[in-house]
Design a protein that fits this description.
This protein is mostly helical. Helix content is 76%, strand content 0%. The chain is built from 17 helices and no strands. The two termini are 21 Å apart. 59% of the residues are buried.
């Protein structure tokens, strides 16, 4: 089962950048929940915590396209080091403000600056696309990245919750910032696997000429983000209602553990089912799982259902990434994936904001209903987008069939020239 993973990790430099990339994107799993917990503890308001977090998430989403274009054009090292500095400054300002019970608008400034962190989740995926050649290997690599993300989401929220509730309210933010400084420094020092900057190859960006499949995947990511944002803050509220707030991170970790297992199994297999079909079925599984989660009446029941529901998360994220990889050129990968991050970020912001209000004024289950409703809406989005995703990603299953990401320089490919079918 693990043979495909061993194969891709044997490429020179792959293990090193995979590990460094994992550490560098620690904020993906810890920053948001740590900021929410810090604000909620210091100001005693879920609504305010969700509001502040939403501001940061919107900014993070909006910055992904311009920073991704800069990364593709100038190179990862040139762009990411200054953004790393901004992230540290924002985190520091946020901690200082919260611990002195400063005005909310200062927290807004802090979270805005800290959210100018660049496309952390796309850096290693772009490196995989740079060193691998076949669809099968790239599918496995993206599944591995999804699994590594779930390692973060298993440990990150639990660690953040424990640190915030038992050690010091901003402790999770401190650990997150230190992790990304160390990881990104190591990652950016590895020049051999870094994709060539578009400025050196003469390539061009996507601009607003987005392939239809990328737009469809971005709307699916919007639904995913709304589900995640509502679920995260509702889980904290649910655990508090049960009298076990310190275990909220453990619940989030259990759901991520389910996603980890699902991602491992999904990425270990080379699928013959068409990508658009797998995308639709992934959203159906999420809708069923998170719908059942609303029936939870206790911590154990929540954990058991959450583990099963989480199994569809990593495969669905892998499908969205793979859609983009198949329809854009190699030197546009970071920019193409940034549109998924925009959809995800806007969704998380909306979900966290509304769920924070619902948890404060109605109860944790109201937030869980929002998460389940978002997952259900995602099924409709996937069905509506499936024709354009099918046109953009289906191609003959031939030995020499290769991704648009591998086309010659200067050759614009909006979708594979010959449908169908995997």
């Amino acid at each position: 089962m693990l043979a495909p993973y061993r194969t891709i990790l044997q490429h020179p430099g792959a293990k090193a950048f995979a590990f460094a990339g994992l550490l560098s994107r620690l904020p993906i799993s810890m920053f948001n929940i740590s900021f929410i917990l810090m604000v909620q503890i210091q100001y005693d308001s879920y609504e305010m915590a969700g509001r502040v977090a939403a501001i940061g998430i919107v900014v993070w989403a909006l910055q992904t396209v311009p920073t991704s274009r800069l990364v593709d054009r100038l190179g990862q090292r040139t762009v990411m080091l200054p953004l790393l500095g901004l992230h540290v400054v924002g985190v520091t300002l946020g901690i200082w403000t919260a611990m002195n019970n400063g005005a909310e608008w200062i927290l807004w400034i802090a979270v805005i600056v800290a959210s100018l962190s660049g496309p952390l989740g796309s850096l290693t995926r772009a490196r995989w696309s740079n060193i691998l050649e076949t669809d099968e290997d790239i599918h496995t690599a993206f599944a591995l990245e999804g699994v590594l993300d779930e390692v973060l989401f298993i440990t990150g929220p639990a660690l953040a919750t424990i640190l915030a509730t038992t050690v010091w309210a901003p402790a999770g933010l401190v650990v997150s910032a230190v992790g990304t400084v160390v990881g990104l420094t190591i990652l950016l020092s590895q020049r051999a696997t870094e994709p060539p900057a578009r400025g050196r190859t003469g390539g061009r960006g996507l601009g607003m000429k987005l392939p239809g499949a990328v737009i469809g995947a971005a709307f699916i990511a919007l639904g995913l983000g709304t589900m995640f944002g509502a679920f995260d803050i509702s889980t904290v509220g649910f655990a508090e209602e049960q009298g076990h707030k310190t275990l909220s991170g453990v619940l989030l970790g259990i759901v991520s553990a389910g996603s980890f297992v699902g991602g491992i199994l999904y990425g270990s297999r080379h699928w013959k089912m068409a990508l658009w079909k797998r995308t639709v079925w992934g959203t159906v599984a999420l809708a069923i799982g998170f719908g059942l989660l609303t029936l939870s009446t206790g911590m154990v029941m929540f954990a058991l259902i959450g583990f099963v529901a989480g199994a569809a998360i990593a495969p669905t994220l892998t499908n969205a990434d793979t859609i983009v990889q198949r329809v854009v050129k190699r030197d546009q990968i970071t920019e193409g994936m940034s549109w998924l991050r925009i959809g995800m970020g806007v969704g998380v912001a909306f979900g966290a904001w509304i769920a924070g209000y619902l948890v404060d004024n109605v109860g944790a289950h109201a937030g869980l209903y929002l998460a389940a409703g978002s997952a259900t809406a995602m099924v409709g989005i996937a069905l509506l987008a499936s024709p354009v995703i099918k046109r953009g990603t289906d191609r003959p299953d031939a030995p020499d069939a290769h991704s648009p990401a591998l086309k010659d320089e200067g050759e614009w490919v909006e979708q594979p020239p010959i449908p169908p079918n995997l």
